[in-house]
Amino acid sequence: MKTIIFFIFIIFTTNVLSADELLTYLESAYKNNPTLNAQRENYKAVKENVNISRSEFLPSVSISGSQSSQQNSNRTNRAGTTLSDSSNTSEVQSISIDQKIFQGFQGYNSIKKSELEAKQALLQLKNTEQQILLQSATAYYDLVYKINNTQFNLSNVDLFERQVESDSSRLQKGEITLTDLAQSESSLAGANAKFITAKTELFTAKSNFERIIRLSAPEKIAKDNFIKSISLNFPTSLNSALTFSEKNNLKLLLAKLDYNISEKNVDIEKSKFSPSAAVKYTQSHNKNFSSSIDKTDQETLKATVTIPLFKGGENYSSLKKSKFKKEKSNLLLQDTINEVKTDTANSWSVYQSSGGILKATQAQLKAAEIANEGVTLEYNSGNTRTTLEVIQSRSLLLDSRISNAIAERNFSISKFKLLAVIGELTLKNLQKS
Asked: Residue 287: its pLDDT value, please?
């Protein structure tokens, strides 16, 4: 009876989960996930550093103006004679142009560093996009499994309810013992406990789905074919997967960029030891400059050359610090290279093994369905099958269904993880599939 009510409910539910909608969910997460949008804003901010660095090569122009008023009173000369009060008002207007001529290539290296940081921010954005797509696919497949698991357990509860009713009738006829009925009732209680657990896990899966994908979680599965919902060109061997990851793995590309940035930091610190030159032009217009001069115009051209000699050891320590960080980045890069190789090998292995496990669970499920059908028919016909054998057969069928659903979920997720580790998990690639 519970099964009938459940299926009537889901028939009239508007939200439907199907494999064809996977791309829609991924697109929603791609557009609306807050973490991903925050990373997009970060990329825009970092790109502005390039313009900031370029501004060092451009002149700096400023306009200033001032007005002052001076009132003199209670004045006396050396003889003590009182002098009349006086006042003086002056205005100054000036324009200054500063142009840096040479900074020991510090400005050039700063631009190159900013460009590398912009590339790094872009890769970080792509890495976040990839992680969100992977999280979204994982949430999707986990929800599919949890919906299936809930339905399997509900169906199991319904079967044991009917068995308890049947065994109660058979006990009254003397066909079975009270022990047989107790076994059926115990199995029904266990099935109800598993069903409650499955519903709780489904609620958690829905919450996680909505948090990542930013859409309401669907209530049912239109067609259980999500294993075939993604058709992409996967590596044909471990060697090809390793080749892909060496070129496209985002973690590795970020580590390489981090090392390149550390090299530029060393160059910037070295440039601080070089002389620098700058030119400053100032034009000013003064009114009532003094009691003897009413107006004056002034132009100043100033060239400055600065040669750093000693800064208390700061420049030397800064250079050594940048070299230490460069070596740190190099060591981390080497570690990342090995880590990516390991991750690629593991992802390839999991992808291959999960496919084999899926085929095995499909065969297991098919055999369990045949066995359960035969045992149930023999038991209902009054043959030698015992209540315990029926319970064991149904438990085996439930375990086989759940194992197959888990294998389907794991195989699908392994495909996405493999795409991520070789750097091919992008929305554009998914839309082409």
From this structure: 75
